[in-house]
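Contributing new records

If you add data, match the layout below exactly. Sequence lines come first and carry their own label; structure lines follow with theirs. Keep one chain per record. Anything else will be rejected by the validation script.
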Amino acid sequence: MASKLVQLQNKAAVASQFVTKHGCAYYKQLLEQNKQYIQEPATVEKCSELSKRLFYTRLASIPGRYESFWKEVDLVKQKLKNRQDLKVEEVGVGVLFALECYAWSCVGEIVGRGFTLTGYYV
């Protein structure tokens, strides 16, 4: 156990040295590549304005997303009406989607209980 701790400390030291040597250069390169997104001057007022723009832009996009959602629901209804015309691939994707939703529900329950595996999921 102690040898694994020493190995972990050595790896952490190597990673720290790498970040120390190359971190500043990476930071500068990243800023240079994305300088068109940087707002000058970076004031509190400008940041507040940009966050409000983002919020209200997202808010304005809700009707379009709402419409797209109902188009998708109508498409699923049409597919269910014509079940005999479904391909195996479409059924497989639907089943995998349902399993994924169920799995996320189970994970959410486990997380909500504080990562304990008790109850009806075990």
